[in-house]
Structure prediction request, 631 residues.
Amino acid sequence: MAMLIETKTPPLKPLGKKETEVIPQATKRHYVWQVPIRLTHWVNALAIPVLFFTGLFIATPFFSPTPGEAFERFTMGHMREFHFIFGYVLLLSIAVRVYWFFVGNNYARSGFPFFWKPSWYKAVIHQMIEYMHLERGYVNIGHNSLAGCSYAGFFALCGFEGVTGLALLGEGNPGGFWDRVLGWTTPLLGGSFRVHMWHHLAAWFIILIAMFHIYIVLYDSHLYKDGLVDSIISGEKHSIEGDKDANTWIS
Amino acid sequence: MEVLERKPSTYDILRAHGVDRRTFLKFCTQSAAAIGLTSAMVPQLVAAMEKKPRIPVIWLHGLECTCCSESFIRSSHPIAQDIVLNLISLDYDDTLQAAAGFQVEEIRKKVMKDYKGEYILAVEGNAATNDNGVYCTIGGESFTNILLETAKDAKAIVAWGSCASNGCVQAAKPNPTGAKPVYKLITDKPVINVPGCPPIAEVMTGVLTYLLTFGELPELDRQGRPKMFYAQRIHDKCYRRAFFDAGMFVEAWDDEGAKKGWCLYKMGCRGPSTFNSCSTTKWNCGVSFPIQSGHGCIGCSEENFWDNGPFYQRLSNIPVPGIESTPDSIGKTLTVLSAAGIGAHLVSVVARKGVRNLTSNPEPEKSEPAENQNPENRGN
Ligand code: SF4
Prediction:
């Protein structure tokens, strides 16, 4: 298991530096994302839309099956089935990813939010301003601090959804496994009904993060020419002179 | 009701009333069935009723509407009359008893002294804690003090109804009287919560029968509710559940689905998050229950149910500080705002490129501080 060692933050690039008109094509190649990272990414990418759609349906069944008798159809039943199955899939994927955080390469840990360190806040703000300059800044091989921050939020939200979701699932089987393991969380959040509402609201925040994620990846990949989009398939990112290969703990 | 010094058992009392043994055994069997015991347990119940002295009960009324008592007196198995007159020794109940004034308070004090540590305290309603509990006084004393005083020497406390168990309407926001449920005021005694607004009559009598028979508390869940009545959700035993799973919902109170008795989920039914026995025991001797009569469950036995409104919509207000919105309206607003932020960023990128192409100057001086940037833009 890799030690959680933190290195000194590399000096930040001065803000507002103008780049020349022609952005040089990145050349150096780095193998960044190992297989479990890419795999869990795509499992998440599949599970989240399914979970969001079925979840919205379960909360507000927005279409009804064609008229007929109840024994002929199982619309809500199937929606719930899919929701639970993909919920387990997502949780499993998250578990693999968290495991890989410890045993994978340094990029698997990059961007970890050191929220107790002032230098981390500086790095996050710096990266935000970078993206507002609409110019090629330096590439982080690995996650930059802002990305790491949002992914930490993503994992926290998934954890919350997992706990509340399984606690709610356990309500259908009182005294069963999930009821015994997680049932105690429900009163803490104001009872079953409120847990439903919190679970629902948190799902929206996951969608928000996914929106920002997709946009900024396309933007970054287009402007920085670092092969970011391809990298989640091939595992490789590109860099030029001056980019930051933070193959260390904090990057 | 006078406190008897001999501490007679239930059977003694029944015999004194001219009840024969056969009827007594019938009564025991019925009571056993009511609290979910198998027939093998009936002898145990008979033995308890024969030997154990009747439990003295002090029944207090605080901030409440007496609907719990109203429900209680409609119990049919066992009938409330049997409970009140035979099973327990209801020594003090300021709503039911004939005596009044200081006489009554003396009875309470006497029971507390004679049966120290043995009597059951049944509480209907809850206590106001703001302004020294002035919002509920009995005989010049605040109910809060009476409750604390009476609870001190009680064996156990039964919190009747949602008021006593979790606060109900008087503890709903903004709770001007500072009403607090019993378990928040009394922490050193076992409290059995029997929530519901009101609780089902058979549930109330069932809890008392259990207490008498076994002389101990029934098994309680995490929120102090007897598992035998509150373990399952209404939704999981609801006879409309087939329509829920099929996805067939009532959409308006007078539509086809309403007439055919489809699921009331979209009309705000709280059955999926309410633990109670309504869909099993039903009400008024098993005549009906809210969902059967076409109205969704409002979740009256759940904590905060008044604050989880409106009752007629499924996705309801969540207590986000400062705003009252459903999860979906919050989510949609945030999504639109974020999309606007992303859009603004994208437009700035395109505009900047356009300016560059037009000027085709290697050093364009036009600096466009990106406005409307959403600070939440994420990195790769
Ligand atoms: S009517 Fe209510 S309790 Fe019954 S199945 Fe529908 S949602 Fe569940």
In short: Chain A is about 60% helix and 5% strand.
